[in-house]
Design brief:
203 residues; two-stranded antiparallel ribbon; globular
Length: 203
């Protein structure tokens, strides 16, 4: 956009889609500590949608890794939103299905199945990165410490193997933790469970 003035000045505006339901983390936070969270069926749909997004990243040339998949970075689109209508399972080519909760289904999501939209690509890096030396491995670990959230960080990002390095598999670990959080409210690595079934967030 150019604004008339004595000096030519240009301003850039960024437009983002609006997600009235917020992120998966917003939804989980509203339901904590007792739930219910997403039902098993809805969590599987969410898993499938995120896996579709990862197919796009992992099959790019060169392959890319998101490296910070977590509920905060998963927006929930209404079923009739353009993002939802355009959603495709890249592996099967089938539209992402959305429907009302099934009879007797325990879920806090009452409208229609949420359609996940993966966001925040500031942490994306080439997926396959070698670590031929210990110094190279330490550099990758420092990078992960700055860019990858701890409760969803793959083990190899904590201790990068030498000389193997990293692959896109780091996203699969984070995806599993996010799937767990969609059902239980927390990553398995940010809450400790007692014998009576109560959970305590680990500081």
């Amino acid at each position: 956009v150019e604004r008339p003035s004595r000096e030519v000045r240009k301003e850039a505006f960024l437009l983002f889609p609006f997600f009235p339901s917020g992120s998966l983390e917003d939804f989980l936070a509203r339901q904590r500590p007792a739930g219910p969270y997403l039902s098993e069926r809805q969590a599987l749909l969410l898993l499938r949608g995120l896996a579709s997004a990862l197919v796009g990243l992992h099959t790019a040339t060169p392959p890319l890794a998101h490296r910070d998949i977590k509920p905060h970075n998963v927006m929930l689109a209404p079923a009739d939103a353009p993002e939802a209508r355009a959603g495709r399972d890249l592996a099967a080519g089938a539209p992402l299905r959305a429907s009302a909760p099934a009879p007797g289904e325990t879920t806090a999501w009452r409208d229609s199945d949420p359609v996940p939209v993966l966001t925040d690509f500031g942490s994306v890096r080439p997926a396959r990165r070698s670590a031929p030396t210990r110094a190279a491995a330490l550099a990758l670990m420092d990078e992960a410490a700055a860019e990858c959230s701890m409760p969803y960080r793959a083990p190899e990002l904590w201790e990068v193997p030498t000389p193997a390095g990293l692959t896109e598999k780091v996203d699969l670990f984070a995806l599993g933790c996010t799937f767990y959080a969609a059902v239980f409210g927390f990553s398995p690595f940010e809450v400790a469970w007692s014998d009576d079934g109560s959970g305590r967030v680990v500081e």
